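Morning run. Coffee first, then this:
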Amino acid sequence: MKKIGLLSDTHSHWDERYVKYFTGCDEIWHVGDFGTIEIADRLREIATLRGVYGNIDGDVVRREFPEVLRFKCEEVDVLMKHIGGYPGKYDRSIMRQIYDTPPKLFISGHSHITKVMFDHRLHILHINPGAAGLYGQQPVRTLVRFVIDGEQVKDLEVIELG
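And here it is:
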């Protein structure tokens, strides 16, 4: 069983509440638009970090994180990409991979809009954690926490930062 902290679109903004809400997580996943590598470094002080770069990330972040990340967490096949869309509107850049070999969990960011949706056609859970940073027009900054236990994704929480 692994407890996961999930965020996106920090845009170089650090909030001490990341520590509060992610302490106790086994892993933190950042879905791009870190803004600076210092955000990644600070998240690593809390837990193991996985991530992908986003469209605003520069060379330093892009050298450390891939554009697309696919991995297993427990028994769940996970696919992450910053600009990925959502069920019914997957981005063209990832659509073929999703349709050819559907993951169990697809995570994207970019929109700054928190979404948790199930793709009934492909049997994929999609999560977009919204934006954790200050940049953008999102009405509420958000983080997500959940548990992966074997093949199950459960106990999902959306945390509003205001």
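The chain has a mean pLDDT of 97. Good start to the day.
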